[in-house]
Amino acid sequence: MRFGVLALAAVLLVAACQSHPTAKVQAPNTPTPSPSTIVLPSPAAEPSPTPDTSSPAHVFVIVLENRSYSQVAGSGYIGDLVAKYGVATNYHGVSHPSLPNYLAMTSGTTWGVADDGWHNLPAGGLGAELTGAGVDWRAYMEGMGADCYRNGNGYALKHDPFAYYGGQCPSQVVPFTQFESDMSGTVPRFVWITPNLCHDGHDCPNADVNAWLAQTVPTILSSDAWKNNGVLFITYDEGEDSANSVLTIVVRANQANQRSDNSYDHYSLLASIEDLLGVPRLGDAAQANPMTDLLQVRPSKTPPRLNASSA
Predict the structure, then answer these.
(1) Is the pTM of this model over 0.90?
(2) Dist CA 41 CA 104 (whole Å)
(3) Among 275, 261, 221, which Cα is nearest to 62's?
(4) CA distance 204 to 247
């Protein structure tokens, strides 16, 4: 009997030792991968795993043409916006002429383009990224007809970057005539607006730009989409001075007027848009500084509670 008990104890002891996992020890001579061979995802390139409730529900962008900061900062309606909202005073275009700047704003690279001609670029860009992420978007092109590749009526293909990616017109690129009705209905999360060649300042003076903005911007600011923590960016594609400086305005509700002297460019704008919409940054936007300081708003003041007798 005693022998049987001892044998059973020995079996149990062996089983317990075998069930305990043995730690893996790397041999001393095993080479450790050098840092250059380890590819780690950039935190800035990863979308937030959970919805960021502090981010705007909707992002609007208006792109104007061919003015340096000093040429427009104090001009008419633009000057009124500068005096009231956030302003990037050290913002620059990334190239000349127009097209490479539009490509930078929507893909994080100029693709080596240095002209305004047609280039059949690979499919992708901001529009395709948003579509893939399930973020609804729409680009409104003033003067565009049924074919986004046909210039005329103030519409210029070179100011419609979404048509260059993949060589086809995305269904989300529509004539500006749809803008008014869309703003009073279901507004896309991302709204891009390209005015025609007069209203963007390409062919007309600042007065025409100001008049168009004075009609268009209030439509955005009166929408529930903007009022509910939305943001409007107004920028120019390129400047006319040697520094390629351009004016960029950040318009948010309850925002204190402020200036930022931080160095920003079109990659910073793309980084800001992608961060706000919760998608990875494209191209050089991954290393760009987003305009975080200009996206801060004053806390909304809680209205006084009314007594029943005063209601």
Answers:
(1) no
(2) 22
(3) 221
(4) 18
- H-type alpha helices, the chain: 2-19, 69-72, 76-84, 98-107, 125-132, 179-183, 206-221, 224-227, 266-277
Report in angstroms the alpha-carbon separations of 124 from 20, 95, 103, 189, 215: 51, 21, 11, 19, 33
Pairing of the two strands 86-88 and 190-194: unpaired
Please check whether residue 10 lies inside any domain of the structure: no
In a domain, 32, yes or no: no
**Considering its fold, how many domains does the chain have in total?**
1
**Residue 222: which CATH number?**
3.40.720.10
Query: Is 61 among the domain residues?
Result: yes
Range of the domain at 145: 54-295
Lookup result for tokens 């999360």: 189
Is residue 306 assigned to a domain?
no
To 10 degrees, the CA torsion angle through 177, 182, 184, 186? 180
Nearest-angstrom CA–CA distance, 308 and 160: 55
Question: Within a 10 A sphere around the Cβ of 207, how many other Cβ atoms?
Answer: 12
φ/ψ of 186, rounded to 5, equals -85, 110
Q: What is the pLDDT along the chain (311 residues), one digit of tens a residue?
A: 444 433 434 433 334 434 333 333 333 332 322 222 222 223 344 343 333 445 578 999 999 999 999 999 999 999 999 999 999 999 999 999 999 999 999 999 999 999 999 999 999 999 999 999 999 999 999 999 999 999 999 999 999 999 999 999 999 999 999 999 999 999 999 999 999 999 999 999 999 999 999 999 999 999 999 999 999 999 999 999 999 999 999 999 988 899 999 999 999 999 999 999 999 999 999 999 999 999 986 544 433 333 333 33
